[in-house]
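User: My instructor asked us to take a sequence, write out its structure as C-alpha cells, and then describe one feature of it. I'm not sure where to start. Here is the sequence I was given:
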Amino acid sequence: MNRPVVLPAFPAPLRWLNQPVGWNVDGDDALAIEAGPNTDLFTDPGGPDRFANAPALVGRLDGDFTLSARIRVDLLSTYDAGVLVLHGDERTWAKFCLEMSPQGRPTIVSVVTRGVSDDCNSFTAEGDDLRLRISRIGSAFAFHVSTGTGFWHLTRYFALDGDPEVGFLAQSPTGQGCTVRFEDIRYSAKRLSDLRNGE
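Assistant: Let's start with the prediction itself. The C-alpha cells for your sequence are:
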C-alpha cells in the first residue's frame, strides 16, 4: 500500500510516484532516496524513447512557495542525479538536477516537459554545499541554485500547466543505481521579492 510519507520540513503529505530501492527520513529536514539501475524521467524530443520509472516523492503545495535542499549524491555513472521535481502528469513535469555529465563533472541541469522534454545544461558545480530551489510565483515557476556563497542564481523561469505536485527524485539512467541525500530541506510560503537575485 502506498501510504503517505510524512517529512516534517514539508508541510503536506508526500506520495511515491515510483517506489525506490530504499528510502529514509532523518530528523525533521533530511531525506535519502535510493534509485535502482536504469531509472529516469525523460521524454526524448528527437525520438520515441520515454522513461518514467525514477522514484519520486511528491506532495501538493498551495499558493506561492519556495522549496530548497542541499543535494548530496553519489555520482557514479553518467546522468546519475539528485533532483527537485515538479510533476503535473505523465506529459507535464519539470526537474532541476545536480547531475553527472558525460564529461564526468557534477552539472546543474534543468528539464521542462510539455509532451516532450527539453534539456538544458547550465554550468558545472563543485563543492559540498550545493543547494537547489524551486519557487512558485503566481502561475510561474523558477529554479535557483546556490553554490555556497549564499547567493541564489536564477537558472530557469517558466510556466507549467495545471497545479503540479513538488518534491524529490533520484535517477540512474545508465548506471547501477544512485543514492541521493536531501539535507536542510526548507519550505517557505513567502513570495520571492526579486526573481533575478533570488530574494
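For the description part of your assignment, you could build on this observation: The chain has one domain: 17-188. Try explaining in your own words what that tells you about the chain.
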